[in-house]
Design goal:
mainly alpha; Ammonium transporter fold
Amino acid sequence: MDSGDTAWVLMSAALVLFMTPGLAFFYAGMVRSKNVLGMLMQNVFAMGLISVIWAIIGFSLAFGGTGSIVGNLDFAWLSGVTDLDGNIPGMAFVAFQMMFAVITPALITGATADRLKFSSYAILIGIWSIVVYAPVARWVFNENGWLFDMGALDFAGGAAIHINAGMAALAVVIVIGNRRGHGHEPMPPHNLPFTMLGTGILWFGWIGFNAGSALAADGVAAQAVVNTHLAAAAGMLGWLAVERIKTGHATTLGAASGAVTGLVAITPCAGFVGGAAPLIIGAIAGIGCFAALGIKAKMNWDDSLDVIAVHLVGGVIGTLLLGFFADASINGDTDGLLFGGGAELLKDQFVAAGAVAAFSFAVTFALAHAIRATVGLRVSPEDERIGLDQSQHAESAYSS
């Protein structure tokens, strides 16, 4: 065991955990004041429920056994985890991966804001973490996973986390329907300072998210830190440049959204690229994700807080661009198309993105339909009018 590597992974786990409250504030600032506690609660609740599920069965399904599709129960209830090979303790790896498992379903909440029943949300993310997240994490992160074995690269979760959650968000949005008044009533963000605070926490925590995925305090981790920061900066500038041209203003919400698009897009690439690549990837993500907002409008999808445009599209952009910019001199033995590696990696990245997207959408769509048909998926019209804070939690964020 290496004490330096262990300390870095444990610190990274703490940074990733901090991202979930950051996500809560990022989203909470964008909803109306009557729904702010509902948004905060959905995100923080994931820290409790998904952590318990991860310890009981999730980690084992993702990393136990030798199956290429799903694991076994060797590590159920965290039994035998100390036997994992590597230069860090098995429990350090469990903790780090647990924080990934927590934040991934929490990402979905931005798409379903203002109308998802809390009890149904609990059922949805609990089952989803077992039947969708755990298998996909295995495909991508475990050496026995079929996408990993095929040669697809995903350093910290572009496919496993962002494409996965983004497609799940799209599936639930289609099933749950639009908010009452969508397209007719103004629904402006109620507290953009919350959103900017959340952006800062996410940017800070993403250092652990990406660089911690090196699982060592080494040069790859250092490269991932630089890549992560530069991609966020370029993503912000790319989004704001297009926003300024299109609308005449550069907004704080645009700055926050642009930074997150850069962070999302660099996630699969963080430990595999260098030089100017993070700047290019971040800028393309900022511009591309802003453009993707138009698709939502044309399709009349009520993705309340743009999870699809930011996480799904950003994840796809990063996953595919890795096929161009992967540099074996940075890490590994695989070069992308622009570094003389041919189109093989790009093909693998297309397969990974497509497989994860199709699986996540299909299973989530079926799960959301099942919940809607049994216990119901969304709140009543009256509860939606009152707001989730009062109707779901009997609380108010602000005194009247």
